[in-house]
């Protein structure tokens, strides 16, 4: 009988500590539930590994125990926390949760764009100060959004922003024209030349060697002083100290951040003190029902695996994401 | 030469105190600029009146001096502050600023809907407390929005909410089906029976005898405890004390308010103390350029008037808004 190891969080207070639906495999597979401490032992003889504890970095140190592993499924869109050289070089297939988060995250981005344009953060501050201050705000129709990352989340975001009348461009590995969702895609190497075009610069890219530190001090300096940075990709794609300085000195206008270089955001981060940020605790995709949906997505993929069919959402381990078909 | 009186605010510090573009009439009309104190005198012999000071209530008391007035143009979408019985009974034509505000206000509503679904207000509060609290938020795709008021602003709002995948219903004077923008329209008299359907109840109605107090304690009690009230119509359409109580006791979840029974919102209003409100100082439609656009809209209508053509945006004085063609 095939063996499926399931890594759950060590935190016993976690409300969704156990994925639902694993009883579907009864009589067809041995399911080994383990926390990170038990992972080395659980991996011995395991054919598949389900990372329900999706940001765990425990796999690398347990790797010598993976003596017959064929497949790892991660219940997250980004696999950067999992990936390491031996895994990339191995025959093990990695799949992820692509698909589920696209629409919720695209909605979060549209909400952040509107909240910035309509100055909701300032209205919330003025409420606590009992101040009635009329301002002229912005129309988003015709505003310009530049989306870094042309994967599934970036594409859904592009479609949603276009549906409300915004002008959209993409930023990808290679420049191209007439993309069905983005129209023009500029190369990430040329981002500095193009960043000034955007009213909203949105990072929807996975963390890879190409995107680490991509939104540098230079890119921030090239942005419009009123512009808005949205990050729903990974914190490490932004030079966070440079971002803090840009927000403090008027280099850019506002930042809506769902991800950070260190999470939870450390208590001494200067971001907490800024009025011109939205700090969201890495939850933009986690809409009601997310947990059950991610478990279901794994069960569906495991059914394919047990039946010998091709898996869904196979990650290109060199690129760090699921390539577009 | 025809005489056009232009009412400007008495507040000399007002940044947009004078409407631009009136020099267009030089040699073709006498333009009399006046503040509210000078209005009675300015109205004597005036053929037209432009209420640049659009919320002024000065016209009623100056009315006996209007000896040859044909036309009043109000630089606002709502004419409730202007309207009084003698004006309604007179032959004077009233026009308004319908059109300009539709899209900016629809964007404000969509922004408020997303901000409520994604809990941005709570994220702003947690930032000031340096708290990292992951929550499950909501997907707006498939959520239900009920829009009170089937005029131009309500329609643009319906179209925008549908464009992002929400389910929409209208509330109007008469029930009907297969409306091109709303689908189903329920009668405002039956609102209590239908209010529980909505995730978001949006007031986009003008203030008329039918809509004054429409969102009563009974309607609020019929709403879902997690539901969201958005008011971009008029404050007097809501029972504000009942709304405060509903927000305090969990009768509804959140309110995004751009209009209030008294404006500016009084310092002692309990709304300032609530965490589950967005207080916006009657500015949802006032996007950058609004002032110039409203002046231009008047100049265009005045050109039609000088040429003897039919005016744009003629208000049905009994209904209190521009009827749909």
UniProtKB/TrEMBL annotation, chains A, B:
Signal peptide limits: none
Similarity comment: family membership: Belongs to the D-isomer specific 2-hydroxyacid dehydrogenase family.
A Pfam family hit: 2-Hacid_dh_C
Segments forming domain D-isomer specific 2-hydroxyacid dehydrogenase NAD-binding: 111-284
SUPFAM superfamilies: Formate/glycerate dehydrogenase catalytic domain-like, NAD(P)-binding Rossmann-fold domains
Organism: Nesterenkonia lacusekhoensis
Record's keyword terms, sorted: NAD, Oxidoreductase
Name of the featured protein: Phosphoglycerate dehydrogenase-like enzyme
Domain D-isomer specific 2-hydroxyacid dehydrogenase catalytic: 36-315
């Amino acid at each position: 009988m095939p063996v499926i190891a399931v890594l759950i969080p060590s935190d016993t207070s976690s409300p969704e500590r156990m994925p639902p639906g694993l009883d579907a495999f009864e009589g067809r597979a041995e399911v080994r539930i383990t926390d990170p401490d038990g992972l080395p032992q659980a991996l011995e003889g395991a054919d598949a590994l389900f990372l329900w504890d999706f940001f765990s970095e425990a796999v690398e140190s347990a790797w010598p125990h993976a003596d017959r592993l064929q497949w790892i499924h991660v219940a997250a869109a980004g696999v950067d926390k999992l990936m390491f050289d031996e895994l990339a070089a191995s025959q093990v297939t990695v799949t992820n949760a692509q698909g589920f988060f696209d629409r919720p995250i695209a909605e979060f981005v549209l909400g952040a764009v509107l909240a910035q344009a309509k100055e909701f953060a300032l209205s919330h501050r003025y409420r606590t100060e009992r101040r009635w201050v009329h301002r002229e705000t912005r129309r988003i129709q015709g505003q310009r959004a530049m989306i870094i990352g042309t994967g599934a989340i970036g594409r859904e975001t592009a479609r949603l922003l276009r549906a409300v009348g915004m002008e959209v461009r993409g930023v990808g590995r290679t420049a191209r024209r007439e993309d069905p969702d983005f129209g023009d895609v500029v190369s990430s190497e040329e981002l500095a030349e193009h960043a000034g075009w955007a009213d909203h610069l949105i990072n929807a890219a996975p963390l890879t060697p190409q995107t680490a530190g991509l939104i540098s001090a230079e890119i921030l300096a090239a942005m419009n002083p009123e512009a808005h940075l949205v990050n729903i990709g990974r914190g490490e794609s932004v030079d966070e100290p440079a971002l803090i300085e840009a927000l403090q000195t008027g280099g850019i206008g506002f930042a809506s951040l769902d991800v950070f270089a260190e999470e939870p955001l450390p208590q001494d981060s200067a971001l907490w003190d800024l009025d011109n940020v939205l700090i969201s605790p890495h939850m933009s995709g986690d809409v009601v029902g997310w947990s059950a949906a991610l478990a279901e997505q794994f069960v569906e993929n495991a059914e394919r695996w047990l039946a010998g069919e091709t898996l869904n959402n196979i990650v290109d381990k060199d690129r760090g994401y699921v390539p577009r078909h």
